[in-house]
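Notebook entry, structure prediction.
Reason for the run: the old model in the group folder had no record of what sequence produced it. Starting over properly, with the input documented here first.
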Amino acid sequence: MFINPVSPTHSSKIFFSYFLLLPFCFIFSSSFAASQQIAEISGEVEKIKYKQFVNDNLRETKLENFDINKASGALVLNNGKEKIAVSRWISPKRTRSYPYERVYDTLAFPKRVTIIPVLKDEGLGGERDFLQWDTISLLSLLDVHVILAYYNDATKNAKRADQITAQKLDNNYVLARLNEVFDFKGSAREWNERETKELKNVFEKAKLAYRDISKNTKTYLHDEAALNELIKYTETPQKFIEFSRRKSQNAQIREQQTKQPKEALATDTKQNITITNALFGKYFFTVDETRLEPKTVYLIEAKHSQRSKFTHENDIKDALVKMMVYTNLKNVRVSNEKRDFRVVLKLTTSRLNGSIDSSASDEELNKYCSENLLDFKQKEFIKKLFTEARTNNFTIIIEKAETKNRSKSD
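New structure, fully documented this time:
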């Protein structure tokens, strides 16, 4: 996969052009346990250059038979003249459903689309998630067309009277937008710039649809006050950006304080990474481990499996999207001092013996898989995964989890 850069726009362009089309300049803010001081890590990325090896072969579906609510998480859509790769999100919140795993499988395709509900309300007894502005920006960086959608049907949760379930997107609306993407001749960033102008309209549709869902299911949903405030912010892009970033920052703080079951950390160096572009783009990531050496800073993502011998492919692909961003950083600095940097993806499980990394030879990998009774499919996946790491200049480590007093589960 190679994602071409887009030239910066002229100053006469509208606000959205600035945010979605300019090169990205990243600023990380981390507090390292060793020094107990905040170290500012900065870098730049102008384009994504990355080659994939573990993406799935997607099944093809005809547009005339397409129903987003019955479709798989990622597929190829054919309208008789052109094919596009499509992925879908079940929630606008990335950390709840790992949608980047599905996005990853579409990135090898020349034209790719992802469908995201702008709002998901599970009822008073559940969560309510809103679309974050910077989700669109990150997908623009990955050259993915974003279709903003909304749920218009659901059923009452039989086990929880204060929740709804089986939510369905408005399929007719999604089909109409997909037809527009097929006909659109511009770049993904140009499409997304146009799509952001529809934020208010789609949020309004979502609000009205949830009123009907609440009435039909006889289930109380969340109060509309916060949603109305958000909709008002969409009238002024900068206010919407500030609103969604406050939510992202709060979520980032919660994530740093929470030990997730998908991670098994050798140290307690989980850190916030705030990624900012030159003007308006900002991403609030959390890296699972960080290590600062005199000349090098290490950014380490971790995925853990408690019961399985090998980390699930979906979790790995979700992490690989971060690898795409991190491996394309340039001019990395720590406290304004230029440093080398290394990117690492660590895969751990309690059921493995020993360790191996992506620098291993085929002979060493064969021996490791044999000693750990990994089957042929797992071994072939690891081979491709190691090739992906070497090709894109990052390291993968597979090892036995070394955690203490932590309850981890799949």
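Summary: Residues 2-38, 260-268, 403-410 have pLDDT under 50 and may be disordered.
The old model has been moved to the deprecated folder.
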